Amino acid sequence: MPPHFVTVHRTFDAIEAEIVCDLLVEDGIAARLLGGAARPTAALFGPATAIESRVDVPAEEAERAERQVAAHLEALREAEPVEADESVPISTEPRPLRPLLAAGVVGLCPGGAHFYARRPLVGLAILAGQAAALATLLGNGAGRGAAAVALVALVLVDLVGGQLAVRAWNRGLRPSRARQAFSGALVLAGAGALAAAVGPLIDRLPGRRSPFRSAPHQVLRRAVDDPRNLPFPLFLDFRR
Questions:
Q1: How far is it, in rounded angstroms, from Cα 91 to Cα 84?
Q2: Assign residue 119 a region: left if phi > 0, alpha if psi is -120 to 50, beta otherwise?
Q3: In terms of CB atoms within 10 Å, which end of the chain has fewer, N or C?
Q4: Which pLDDT tens digit goes with each residue over 102-152?
Q5: Angstrom distances, CA of residue 46 to CA of 12, 17, 21, 38, 52
Q6: Biggest alpha carbon distance in the chain?
Q7: Which part of the chain has CATH 3.30.70?
Q8: How far apart are the first and last CA of the chain?
């Protein structure tokens, strides 16, 4: 009398069914595969998902076969890669800033080093201070010496402070807007105090005729012919 077979595994994946059947056969169980089977021509027409495959074993081996199939399927599930949860945002560290690039943009844009260092409010303060100093320096009113001092001081603050800001950003420091605004106001106050203290001393230097008494266009015209005609401290002549 032929043995009675029972089904221990059903699937629409023909390759999976063949693997399960081979595993049972290797374990000494007389398993047989019924239904769809994986063939080379299946790649041309896609997987045979509409055909169910099943693995049958003798009834007396059914219990052992079911344990084998369950263990195989559990191993497959553990081997599958876990997909990342798209609902959780992935944090990426920003690329480090370059101090050399921060120094290079100082000559291109007033406050450029602080703009590059992600401190826009400090950069805006330096930009506004340099614009006001330059307008006073090229104007016809008084205070040109103080304006020149403020202009040079703000350039140095942007150059040196920008380097420090870049290094702080690379260390992970993220100043708030309130702190940036306070730092910008402090920079303007310091540059103004230095200009008020040093500017009048420059105009009263002994043996030096104040170049700021000339009209701005005359100063610029003489500077084109010879950079040494630029007003102090835009040009320092230590031979005098």
A1: 13
A2: beta
A3: N
A4: 888 888 888 888 998 899 999 999 999 989 888 887 876 677 788 888 889
A5: 13, 17, 22, 11, 15
A6: 130
A7: 5-78
A8: 124
